[in-house]
Design goal:
Number of strands: 6
Shape: globular
Distance between the termini: 35 Å
Number of helices: 9
Largest sheet: 3 strands, antiparallel
Radius of gyration: 21 Å
Length: 203
């Protein structure tokens, strides 16, 4: 029995019981929009509605505007490489006691983040059968990483991750920032909420 035939029979049985699922189910679709992401045969992309909202976001006029923008961007952080580094100049304006003055440096990063979100490149699906490659980098202001797998003889991104450095971490030497203290705990924390990692990790 094919998947579609099985779905049709399920709908028929549900209808016989008085349940209406037609408005909540999608069958044989080439793509699916769910939880702010578009899932298709190409991979995973951010929902165009969320991207359009960021594209239309005007340059912030105050700290509250900037907090809104950064919050929206962080929601799509897995699609943006080196996000913490890209938002450094903008986040500097959020420091307590600092007067909010939007300059060309902030505008440049503001436009850069928008352009990266508009990229047509999709993240690939995680495949537990394939080896993974994790690349990490660090700067004074942020830590970044990319998880890649080889698809069709080419390394392609599965997910990006980044965070800003603390005041203490920003004083470390570059090699110390890449292998930052508690790196294993950070990795374990990431694995702890990743359903795919939990499903396929060895006992």
């Amino acid at each position: 029995m094919s998947m579609i035939t099985g779905c049709v029979r399920f709908w028929e049985c549900a209808g016989d019981q008085g349940s209406n699922l037609t408005d909540k189910c999608v069958v044989a679709s080439s793509e699916l929009v769910i939880f702010g992401e578009v899932i298709s045969s190409e991979g995973v992309k951010p929902d165009p509605q969320n991207v359009d909202a960021l594209k239309e976001f005007p340059p912030p006029q105050c700290k509250q505007d900037l907090l809104r923008f950064i919050g929206m961007v962080k929601y799509l952080g897995c699609f943006i490489p080196k996000l913490s580094e890209c938002t450094t100049h903008m986040r500097e304006l959020l420091q307590k006691g600092l007067i909010f003055i939007w300059t060309e440096a902030q505008q440049h990063r503001f436009d850069e983040v928008k352009s990266m979100l508009c990229s047509e490149q999709a993240l690939q699906f995680y495949d537990p059968r394939l080896p993974i490659q994790v690349s990490a980098d660090a700067s004074t202001h942020g830590l970044g990483a990319i998880l890649q797998q080889k698809h069709r003889e080419e390394q392609k991104p599965v997910s990006y991750a980044s965070r800003s450095t603390t005041d203490t971490e920003s004083q470390y030497a570059p090699i110390e920032r890449v292998f930052w203290p508690n790196i294993q705990k950070d990795i374990d924390d990431k694995v702890g909420w990743c359903s795919a990692c939990l499903q396929y990790q060895p006992n």
